[in-house]
Write a structure and sequence with these properties.
By secondary structure, the protein is α+β, with helices and mostly antiparallel strands. It is 32% helix and 23% strand. The structure holds pyridoxal-5'-phosphate.
Length: 329
């Protein structure tokens, strides 16, 4: 951004498009297709994946989102993600631009146009443009956006060697905001930045009662000394679709998962620190072991059998389970 010694140009449409393309060529991205209800269609040129600045999702954070995975040409667990999307919309007092079926169909069509066989689908609902106020502008039409992209990638070492996490110094979101997948991720962003700056891989929120909450964009679970898989209650954190599915899979396959039982309850930090294994769970990370928390090793400081077994169960479910929608490429 240079302004010294020159008058800022007043751009025409062509120049603006050229600048948007120049921006993308300076910083290549892996976005394969983008649907916008405001454009009434799909674009595949990342330079065209834009929305009006005055949409309240941009300047007030009045919007929600969710993310599902595309695995080998099929969309995994979309209906669970859509259920949560609708819950988030309701909690955020956002109007829907159409029916659930229409949004589902748009997501599937956008995935098909992208030609991407492995990656992520992220979709947003916005309050819409029309003013710089707080409450939705008069006549604002809610926006629905769908992005098909490569997905978040994490280092292989997270799975082979395990992650190192730290207790964040940032306060956990109040339950209503933690349970709503809104575009207000400031605490999550700050937590992750803080952890990286301190030489860790990620952070962990602890609630006001001293119970474990969640991580930046993933849930946290533990294996107790007695072999029980324990997960924090979902009344003060996001209901992770991956966690919910893994809890089901672990209950159904206790032997394969190497667990003696499954519990969802408050987990005091002091108890969590004595656990054999600590797991990070989410659509992008899937299942990864944490082997160090602050200055303390978890278990014997090596990835444990449960994290490996749960990753395998999840990967099977993502490839050949009963929650897959084939993308009509
Ligand atoms: C704050 C937070 N917690 C947990 C999760 C894990 O949820 P899921 O398994 O649905 O990806 C996410 C990711 O969406 C998240 O952003």
């Amino acid at each position: 951004m240079t302004v010294e010694g020159r008058t800022l140009p007043l751009l025409d449409e062509g120049q603006m498009l050229a600048e948007l393309r120049a921006l993308r060529s300076r910083q290549p991205v892996e976005y394969s297709a983008f649907y916008s209800s405001q454009l009434n269609g799909i674009v595949t040129d990342p330079a065209l994946m834009v929305l009006p600045f005055d949409d309240h999702i941009v300047h007030r954070g009045h919007g929600i989102f969710d993310t599902a995975a595309i695995v080998a040409g099929q969309i995994y667990d979309l209906d669970a993600h859509l259920d949560r999307f609708l819950l988030s919309a309701d909690r955020s007092k956002l109007r829907l631009p159409g029916s659930r079926e229409q949004m589902r169909d748009i997501i599937i069509q956008t995935a098909a146009v992208s030609a991407r066989r492995d990656g992520s689908i992220r979709y947003w609902l916005s309050s819409g443009p029309g003013s710089l106020e707080l409450t939705p502008a008069r006549g604002a039409e809610p926006g629905f956006f769908v992005m098909i992209f490569a997905g978040l990638s994490y280092p292989e070492r997270w799975y082979t060697e395990g992650l190192r996490v730290m207790t964040t110094t940032y306060p956990i979101k109040a339950p209503l905001y933690a349970m709503t997948k809104a575009t207000n991720y400031l605490p999550n962003v700050l937590m992750q930045m803080e952890a990286k700056e301190a030489g860790f891989d990620n952070g962990v929120f602890i609630d006001e009662d001293g119970n474990v909450g969640e991580s930046s964009n993933m849930n946290v679970a533990f294996v107790t000394r007695h072999g029980t898989l324990v997960h924090p209650k979902f009344d003060h954190i996001l209901s992770g679709c991956t966690s919910l599915r893994l809890l089901e899979l672990a209950r159904a396959h206790r032997d394969r998962a190497h667990v003696t039982g499954v519990e969802v309850r408050d987990i005091p930090v002091a108890e969590a620190r004595t656990c054999r294994e600590m797991l990070l769970l989410g659509s992008s990370i899937k299942v990864a072991p944490a082997i160090q928390w602050d200055d303390q090793a978890i278990g014997d400081g090596k990835p444990g059998p449960v994290s490996k077994a749960l990753l395998q169960l999840l990967e099977e479910d993502m490839r050949s389970g009963d929650r897959l929608i084939p993308v009509p490429y």
